[in-house]
Queue: 2 jobs
Job 1
Amino acid sequence: MIEVFEEKEFSSLTKKILFGKLEADIGSIKNIIEFDSWRKISLSIFSEFSLEEIFSVLTQKWKDLNLTGIKTIKANGNSRVYRVDSNEQSYVLKIYPDLQLDPRKRLETEYQSCLVLYQFNLAVPKPIRMDDVLNWGLYLWIEGKDTDERQSNLIFQLIEFIQKLKEIKTKFQKRHLDMHLKLVYLVLNLNYRYKRDLLSCKI
């Protein structure tokens, strides 16, 4: 609240951080920094999680996975993506955008969509864990490599993928239909990978 900064006893040496928008008339109050999300306030004080801190949180939260290492895949854009390894297998950690800045429930949509598709044996990463508070999703890593040219076999596999979506849709009650319409959009935006002529996608 702006009134806190107006108190006579409020130290001029204290950094003034306001959650929300400044009004046009704030009187004699100076040097106020405004933020539109608590995450931005946190980052202004503590900075972004380092790779080591992310790994520390993971090993404490999901101890049973026996994680051994982490490396950055993509650290810019709306989401950040990391490869996380254990002695048995590897995973993809996706850190989703701040919900105060992007209110879309992307973690819930993508995680639940992959869960349904995986249950029907479609080529998507297996969902492993999710955390609503941190807005983190963990998926099974799929080995593959980027393709930099149009390949007809990938187009045909994509068509087959969408046909299977239509089959799945009939198995659910009407209240689930909207989710499956979103699946097509989600699938078309995944980065497709291929290995041994199989279509793989990595979130």
Job 2
Amino acid sequence: MTHPRPSRAVLLAAGASLALAGCDRKAAPPAPPPQAVGVITLRASPVELTTDLPGRTEAVEIAQVRPQVNGVIQKRLFVEGSDVTAGQQLYQIDPSAYQATYDSAHAQLLRAQAARVTAQARLDRYGPLARAHAVSRQDYDDALATAREADADIALARATMSGAAVNLAYTRVLSPISGRIGRSLMTVGALATVNQTSNLSVVTRLDPIYVDVNLPATRLLELRRELKQGRLSRAGADAATVSLTLEDGSSYETQGRLEFSEVNVDETTATVVVRAVFPNPEHLLLPGMYVHAELQEGVDPTALRVPQVAVTRTPHGDPVVMVVGADKKVSIRPVTTGPAVGTDWIVTAGLKPGEQVVVSGLQKIHPGDTVNPSEVAQTDAPQGQKAG
């Protein structure tokens, strides 16, 4: 049986079809490889939490030097801006009138004492005579009354002399406290009066010195809540320490300690006054200076640190990170950030230890993409690193 041979046209058509099919298979692009990204694996570590707040220095003691008697200032006995001690004489007010008053009171005392001697002698004589009925009972009673009046006159004279001595001593104007004295507001020859509105000078104690800062009430409540829940622990002996940064950016070399926090919240600012006390032996800090105080609040023993470059924001401003799952797929994760530690954020919610967070290659990936993660070394916070 003979079979018809296919025509040449049919063979050519079949060959063209096979050629076109081969071209189609060659044009299909290969699947792209997973995008390489850098990740860090989260691990919990203790971080000391701090708060950096502006504050003002306040003197521990301020005493106004005021006259306690009237008189003309005869001498000024201090150098303006120098250190003085408690009880050191600062001014001399003209004592002549007060010295005369004291001398007169002293003379009155001597006179009263002499009259008492005479009255007592008379009473001593009248006693036996009255018992012998040689003098009347009335004469004896008069002698007794005179002696008692003499005692009262002595007490009155002593009180008058004591008051005169106090006023005389007040002509020596003394420093009420130890500290640094400012400029003199009255000159020699000026009349000082007890009721004058201005003081003579001001003495300020500079060592130690206070620093008052205003802590937001919401932050105070948050700290207390975290301590109560156990998420924060107190930093032991360092829990009450405070560090200072001065206006020129330099650090004050000595740490202070927390003295107290106000019991009331300021209604206008919603803040609580927190006071720290600092040693100031060289008087580097002066009252009224603007400083930055770093308050040590506690320790978060299980803090999760995420590099700030890994945290992006949604159009609404919410912080998010890209997380790589076990299947190498990327998902977007909302997080809650807390204070900063160097170039990292402390993440307080949304992540857990062991998860991988993308830190590089973020601009090349989207949620749902499969990636090829490689671990990036996370720089550990130096010892003593603080979050604030």
